[in-house]
Amino acid sequence: MAISGLVVTLSEDPAGAAALTVLNSEPRLTLGERFGRRIAVVAETPSARDDRELFDELRAMPGITQVDVTFVHLDTEPAVSELSQQGPLVEEPHAHR
Amino acid sequence: MLTVDRRAFVKASAMAAAAAAASGSNRALALTVLNNQPEGSPLKWQKAPCRFCGTGCHVMVGTENGRVVAIQGDQKAEVNKGLLCVKGYHVGLALYGKDRLTTPMLRKNGKMVPISWEEAIETIASKIMANPKGFALYGSGQWTIGEGFAGNKFMKAGLGSNQIDGNPRLCMSSAVTGFLSTFGVDEPPGVYDDIDACDVAIMWGNNMAEMHPVLFSRLVDRRTRGEKVTIIDMTTRRTRTSDLADHVLYFKPHGDLAIANGIAHLMVKSDKYDKDFVAKHCNFRKLGPKPDEKTPPDMLGVPMTFEEFAAAVEPYTPEKVEELSGVPAEKIRMLGDLFMRRDVRINSFWCMGMNQHTRGTAINCIVHGIHLMSGHFGKPGDAATSLTGQPSACGTVREVGTLCHLLPGGRLVANAEHRKEAEKLWNVPEGRIAAKPGYHTVEMFKRFNTPTDQGGDITTLWVQVTNPGQTLPNLNRNFRAKKDLADKFMIVSDVYPTATTELADLILPSAMWVEKNGMYGNSERRTQQWFKMVSAPGEARDDCWQLIAVSRRLLDKGLDGMKGKDGKWIFHTTDKSGKEVPIWDWAHYYDVNVDERLFEEYRPFSTKKHKNLAPYQEYVKSRGLRWPVVEQADGSWRETRWRFSEFDDPFVATGKGFQFYHSVSKDDKALIWFRPHEHPPEMPDAEFPFWLCTGRVLEHWHSGSMTRRIPQLHRAMPKAYVEMNREDAVKLGIRNTEIVTVKSRRGEIDLPVWIGGRGDPKPGEVFVPFFDEGKLINLVTLDEYDPYSKQPDYKKCAVTIVRKG
């Protein structure tokens, strides 16, 4: 489980209002207080990978001008087990490994 | 797994952090959450600066059962105001790559085998004892202040050797020489508050959106609040910064000098420079004659009159500048007009584009000069801001002076008075510090990679907290040649295997970031402190301890240099009762706060150049303080935002307005330099027809040794590539993603082509990021460097693109 706190900035045009509708209907998001065009959002996803993908989706969404991250919870076990499943990330292992 | 209560708590924390950041000033909300953890929750929150870039964002680090489990942007931090970039967001995972180095390893019969710390320390000490003059220490802008100070003292006061340099030589030493040449003292006069106050932000070859995203966010966020901020992106390729800029001015590589001179030309011709400011506070300067064919003119130059200056910039008409830089003449006029306006505030920003430049000192000087000439200086929003790439390039390397020519606090080894002061403060005998500067980075590695009997007089090299096997230019010559030299010995202290440890003879596993106490100094003169929060894995130990343990072993072996004037060890440390603490013994290293002890020894060095630091405990209480930090009558400590400006700098005399109190010309005036445009040392030709520019990407920090081990970042940007203009690709019949060879006179690598990708170079130019150790672009780059800063130019060399098969 990954939980993160985001600040989403909406554009001033109709696309911003449309984006807000989409955000409201997105089950992975909980919308919080709004300050002008900035809105506090909590994202809750099954894994850190999904969290990142959601972040990218938001960033690419029309009507959203900016997504800032303010909080991330790195739940110990999933984070570590995910790393251990990755295998070597560097593709050309060094001689001393 | 998260329990329901824990999950609710974490969600509440996330929402509170987001709401606090969204509101812009709701600090109380965040504090409420931190103070209202569920009963029995073991989660503990502590502050730390981010491990990565030079911005100096603060994070709150949540630890539980000896592990970092949560990160949030620090609401109390003025730098980032609760926000983080994608790297900062994942910084906690940098500790937990599965291949952390956990035990010392020595190369025996060609293989790396685990050894004890005892054997490791003895091995290093023996190597140094065998040839002290052939020993060099290569450090880092990621060294903490304590580590840098210990390394500097170990070398300069202990061994009496100046063979110490650091990787900021590769990233910001041209900014240093620019500040020294202009103001007589290093480090920027302005601060990040200028970002909040400027009307115009000019990026001089600076992709701030990817390299300093939190600062860029701070800038563009002003637009969200309805403020007008004009962003001008001067660049050689389209980047994410260009996407949000009002004006994108593409210039030819090296064309920046022509543009800056063109702005000066227009101010002179229009007679609309700030005459009052210039008359009161500036002198004009140029380089003098060369002493001989091989030696460049003195960096501090000779005076010139305004009339001589006007004549020197006379040729830089907008049309001539268009020819030299490729920027249309009307855009040069637009820039000139902006600088001549008094009703706007202008903030220039730069980073590697101006610093990794064979004319790095020159372009730094000219940009300062146009700000001074126009009076766009020293007021909130009017500033020339050099951004740094590493978290403590300023704090550790520039301020502590861990370069081959420096001593702490802005002193020079070549200056007898400065040496005497340092010897007194370090309590070592007069004459201990050598007068001759050591080798700068490129020279140090050249010497190490040259056979000893052919002048390669550096025989043992200790690398800490950096990865020169990936980041040095022209790696075949400057790093990889060592592989065939049997009498060279390289020690590497690091946290992960890297392209540098690959050729190491001895590897020392290090603690990183919140696994140790530390202090950093960021781009805006802000000194920051944090405490150790979790233990390092296995046998990994602090870099500072490693230096101290070797120093002690050298003392035990009879090396007198490791003794002070009083006969005591140079790192002699006592507890509150005055009893010696054996900090050379790891079991006792944390019996006292060694970081505090070293910082308090360092503090007195800081006052000479008015870089005053507060006591260590003041930094414990704060999210960093910007020097000079001066004690007030009530015993409090006040930081300084705008240096040299009377309204804020306590060292400016009353009534002066501005005072450049370390002036090169000794009259409290800054220097406006003329430095001509010149062509770079290597340019495209028939055989190598493309310009190559190298750089960074948003997801990875520098050589990627930490960020590539964070799965989310690795997946987002897994491999290096070569960006190419579509027009060039069509001409050569190259398809997107096709593998090509990027080849220079020095080396070659194969890379996939990315056309119309994140960045988009102009025709005749290609770009390759350097984060990928599987694709070492520095096998290809040129090792020519600026004659003053000795900083190499990673932004310009000539290459060819060859299709495979």
Q: In short, what is this structure?
A:
The complex is a heterodimer of chains A (97) and B (805). Chain A has 97 residues and is of the alpha+beta class. Chain A is built from 3 helices and 4 strands, in the order E-H-E-E-H-E-H.
Classify the beta-strand content of chain B into a percent band.
15-25%
Name the CATH class of the largest domain in chain B. Alpha Beta
Mean pLDDT of chain B: 94
- Largest interface, C-beta within 8 A: A-B, 54 and 67 residues
**CATH topology category name of chain A:** Alpha-Beta Plaits
Explain what you see.
Chain A is an alpha+beta fold and 97 residues long. Chain A has one domain (2-85): Lrp/AsnC effector binding domain/regulation of amino acid metabolism (RAM) domain (Alpha-Beta Plaits, 2-Layer Sandwich). Chain A contains three helices and four strands. Chain A has helices at residues 14-25, 48-60, 76-86, and strands at residues 2-10, 29-35, 38-45, 64-73. Chain A has a four-stranded antiparallel sheet with strand order 2-3-1-4. The longest helix of chain A has 13 residues, at 48-60. Mean pLDDT of chain A is 74; it is low at 76-97. Chain B is α/β, with parallel strands linked by helices. Chain B has four domains: 4-96, Phosphorylase Kinase, domain 1, CATH 3.30.200; 105-171 and 392-589, 3-Layer(aba) Sandwich (Rossmann fold), CATH 3.40.50.740; 175-387, Dimethylsulfoxide Reductase, domain 2, CATH 3.40.228.10; 690-803, Barwin-like endoglucanases. Chain B is 31% helix and 18% strand. Chain B contains 28 helices and 33 strands. In chain B, the strands form nine sheets. In chain B, strands 5-4-20-19-18-6-7 form a seven-stranded mixed sheet, with helices on both faces. In chain B, strands 27-32-28-30-29-33 form a six-stranded mixed β-barrel. A five-stranded parallel sheet of chain B has the order 11-9-8-14-15. Chain B starts with a helix and ends with a strand. The relative contact order of chain B is 0.15. The chains are: A alpha+beta (97), B alpha/beta (805). Chains A and B meet through strand 1, strand 2, strand 3, helix 2 and strand 4 of A and helix 1, strand 3, helix 3, helix 9 and helix 27 of B.
